[in-house]
Specification:
Blueprint: H1 2-15, E1 19-23, E2 29-34, E3 44-48, E4 53-54, E5 56-57, E6 60-61, H2 65-70, E7 72-77, E8 81-86, E9 95-101, E10 104-113
Parallel strand pairs: 1-10
Antiparallel strand pairs: 2-8, 3-4, 3-9, 5-6, 7-8, 9-10
Length: 114
Amino acid sequence: MFIKLIIYFSLIYFTLSDQNIQANIGQDITMSCYFDDPSKLDQLSFMHQTTGDILSLGLELFLDDSLVNQRMQLIPFGSNRLDLKIFSVNQNDSGLYTCMFNDEKLSSYLLEIL
């Protein structure tokens, strides 16, 4: 019973992290993903749900080199947080972003460009 209760609260913690982000064109934004098990970082991914693009797996970005080097960066913090930073957002960056662990959604962000 005690173990089930801990798992239940853990899932609530992650689903409550959904949020809306409003940004002006040219602004930098950061989306954070929190996870429980640092040894599973290689199974963590960021997705741009609106376009269907898988942006990252673990600490590797899957975008063309110009976007990776100039506009997006993965930043690990401690042992249980990974940030996706987008520099100088534009209208094409708008939409729904999701942080996933395997097939489980950990957090999502709806990015609206003003």
